Amino acid sequence: MCRTLVPNADLLTYSSLRREALASSTIEGTIASPDELVRFEASQSSDREAVREVSNYTNALEWGVQQLERLPIVSRLVLGLHERLLAGVRGTSNAGRFKEHQNWIGPYPNDPIEEATFVPCAPEDTLNLMGMLERYVNLESSEPKLAQCALVHYQFETIHPFGDGNGRVGRLLIVLQLIQLELLSAPLIYPSVYFERNRDEYYGLLQKVREQGAWDEWVGFFVEGVRQQCHETINFTQNILRLRDELPQTIGNVRRRASLSAVLDAFFHDPTLSVQEIQERANISSYHTVRSALRELEDQGMVYEITGRQRGKVYACMPVLDAIFGLNQ
Question: Minimal CB count within 10 Å: which of 70, 122, 212, 280?
Answer without folding.
Answer: 70
